[in-house]
Fold this sequence. Notes:
The complex is a heterotrimer. Chain A is an alpha+beta fold. Chain A is 26% helix and 36% strand. The longest helix of chain A is centred in the N-terminal third of the chain and has 25 residues, at 3-27. The mean pLDDT of chain A is 79. By secondary structure, chain B is mainly alpha-helical. In chain B, helix 5 packs across helix 11 (238-264), helix 12 (272-286) crosses helix 13 (296-321) and helix 12 (272-286) crosses helix 14. In chain B, strands 1-4 form a two-stranded antiparallel sheet. In chain B, strands 2-3 form a two-stranded antiparallel ribbon. Chain B is globular and about 70 Å long. The longest helix of chain B is centred in the last third of the chain and has 36 residues, at 324-359. In chain C, strand 16 (327-333) and strand 17 (336-337) form a beta hairpin. Chain B binds chain C through residues 1-2, 211, 214-217, 219-220, 222-223, 226-227, 229-231, 233-236, 354, 357-358, 361-364, 367-368, 371-372, 374-375, 378, and chain C through 81-82, 97-102, 106, 110-111, 113, 115, 120, 126-131, 156, 158-159, 161-162, 192, 281, 283-285, 290-293, 326, 328, 502, 533.
Amino acid sequence: MSKKTLMARGLFVAAYLLLAIWAYTTGKGYVVFINNYATGESVEVFVTLDKASPVRIRRGGFVPLMVKGKGTHQIMVRREGAADFEGAFVYPRSAEALSIAVAMIMPGQELVVVPVSAALEER
Amino acid sequence: MNPLKKFEPLKFISDNIVTVIFLALTIIAIPFSRLSGIYILSNLIDRFARSAFLVFALILPIMAGMGINFAMVLGATAGQIGLIFAIDYNVMGIQGLLLATCIGVPLSIFLGWFCGQVLNRARGREMVTGFILGYFMDGVYQFFGLYVMGWLIPIRTREVMQVTGSGVRNTLALGPVRGGLDNILNLQVGPFHLPLLTFGVIAFLCLFIIWFRKTKLGHDMRAIGQDQGVSHSAGIAVDRTRIMAIVISTILACIGQIIYLQNMGNMGTYTSQRQAGYFAAAAILVGGATVSKATIMNVFVGVFLVHSLYITMPIAGKEIFKSAMVGQYMSDFINYAIIALALVLHAWRNKRNADLARAGLRGHADKDSALAAQAGAVQ
Amino acid sequence: MANESSLLSLEGISKDFYGNVVLEDVTFTVGRGEIIGLVGENGAGKTTLMRILFGMPVIAETGGFKGRIMLDGKQVAFTSPFDALDAGIGMVHQEFSLIPGFTATENITLNRESMKRNVACDIFGERMSVLDRARMRTRAAKAISRLGVKLDPDILVSEMPVGHKQFTEIAREIDRSNVKLLVLDEPTAVLTETEAEVLIQSMRMLAAQGISIIFISHRLHEIINVADKIVVLRDGKAVKSVPVKGVSVHDIATWMVGREVKGSSSMLSACSEKVFLKVDNLWVDMPGETVRNVSFDVCEGEIFGIGGLAGQGKLGIPNGLMGLFPAGGNASLDDSPVPLNDPHKVLNNHMAFVSEDRRGVGLLLDETLEWNVAFTAMQAKGEHLIPVLGGLFKLRNERTMKLLAEEYIKTLEIKCTGPKQRAKELSGGNQQKICLAKAFALKPKLLFVSEPTRGIDVGAKAIVLETLRRYNKEYGMTIVMVSSELEELRSICHRIAIVDEGRIAGILPPTAEIAEFGLLMSGEKTGKNGDAA
């Protein structure tokens, strides 16, 4: 086997492994719990994460949604009688899960995300 | 001298009888189903993108003279194992599909190599051996899915696990990777939804096959497909080349099954791979391929025809018999019948060619014309 | 043409297969650009000699050979045919080894294709290179032009006339850059006269270009026509190695078959003039033994011999008439038509067959002798069966089966422990006798015997032949005997037909000169009954 052949094969295997690793790291889904716990005037909401289709959350309910990879993600919240909210949040590298309360989302304000372990301690 | 130059309608029909029967059935079923042309066409586009890749897996083994590779079920199984891991690790979208492929391909290479070894020991009976290998693989796969998963390899995601607490579910929802390929690059043309990336992958595969036929390996496969003895005496490594044909077929089946399932969105963990095998065999035969000759065109024609029948038959059945079940039954029945018909026709053609050759036993002049006629029949 | 320095010399080649001597001290040389005509009967050792030259594994597996092979003055010992090819020796086989769906170009360059490398080669190996079709075509055209024939490089082999296939094969061999010696094994056997003539021209052209040729053929006039030197093999010995000048076809035929003839026809019974079996335009599709167009008559009480070289169709005649292979034409026995393609009816029609395939078709190897003897009679005629419940079903009649077997064991002197012994435990000669007994048990009026003495020792041979002669004499049984051994046919037959290329080349009395038979076998002469093209 010539040196060139050996190198080409080495590169091929390396590229193959890199592809697998890249797919795993960037494609892994992480959970975001989105709750619509009642705080008075709360109503049914539709939440859209990234490019997924909108998900309905009834009043007082919560849903686990998935986002692809950690890092920055888009969120859009639509509720009756209010303007749509569009924003972004950062999934912290250290977090295993994330919780977002719809009630805490105010137009024009910073989005509040709570790593789940912290959220659990609060209760 | 050359019978090909003259177009004879009867001969054309008798040479493509499987395709003609299927076309006739579809044409009859369409008006009964009362489906609109747009509905049928947009469904066809979706289904073509879904399953064309799978059918391409069968071309190379046919070229190498090994008949319909029923053992492509092994590749489909490998693809499903890849998907189980992707779902269990919760890898989403195109990355999930790539990861499934990265896991499935090495597995396919191993399974294809194993299968090739077995088929080399069952020369001349490749098809039935491949068929039985598929059943054998079912056993191995069920052992893996039901016992090894959850016991040696822990299952992380509850949606993958059976309710009993071990093993992989019978029906696996592929939510995270659903449409992972189809939804990346889309084009809406009027009422039609075109998954461009999926089409791109299929086009790339076609180019690959065209290129592959021009390579030394592809050329050797064609030679072996026609005469193993001659190829061997010319120094071609017959056994190795046959194994390669099966390995490539298995890899393509693995990728094809992943593409198929990402479109479907859920997977019958222990049944989908088998359906893939039946479907692909039926499609390529309906497209006019024989157990000894297959082209890219056969794949396209076959996929369109089979799906036209799948779309229209259940509805037509519902309209005629007032029962969708009967229509569903009819399309399944026709599907299997077509495989049987094509195999019988192949045996019959071989016999007819032998008779033609025999007709010329008396004298050289007769023999030459019989051989020419035979050559025409083989084409 | 012959050059002084020899290219290849075979020195004292001897070979035996487990004590059975096939070649004995064969010596001859091949000069550069020289054409050697190699002739000999089947079994004379031509095939074995070529296998040794090409280093076929079968030779080493059976204990190698004695003597040495010198190529270009150096001793060579090939361990596989590919070594021989590398050393510049090419072989064109009797059967076409071409890929039917490939063009002439693709066949000529098969597995030596011109290729262009690409990136995929580094990762997946050289076989991912793309074929360079333009260069392949140029190479093919060049090889064809060296042969001096017209042949379209783009035509499919399956659409070629037979002659072009032969040229394609030869072109494939001379496409090798270093080819020095070509072995052509019966290249003209399948060709018409004109095609053969063109081939001979091509051979002269190749020789003029310095390529030596070993030309194996049984068409002797071609040998005389083209060869510079002639080597005659007989019973494993090179009996003659002479320049071709001044040699006649008759001389070669005599050298080929000329051995002592034992026995005589005087002990034969007289046979009537009445035509018993009449065969008209018979064809049989038996692989390797194709019968194309055969007509002959056999008289009542006659022993009719059918001889000829292997592969010419003599075995096809009885196998076709007995319905074992697809056949067509007309045949009648005692003026009633013989149904072809139906073995059962033929057996009911007073005809029986002793197959050349003793262990395959002839015997039930795992069954007892009585079973073997009675089996065909039971199946074909319903003998040795006891009807039960008015014939609703039938049981074997063990008693009559035993009596029958004992009778034949006695009359045919079969050496065995008794009727209950298994057929596979017997020796070849005794197995052959069982086959005869099985046929006799049908009490046929016409018996076909195919190669009755193949693979059995001399003593057993004599008994088998004597048995046939006795049944012919005492019971007036008409016998058609097919054999490759001419001597044997001449010792017991009334008339002998020689089959060549699926046709009857001629029918001779056993007293005819041996050279006459040789000429018929080599297709040099056709008798009045033949209609060869």
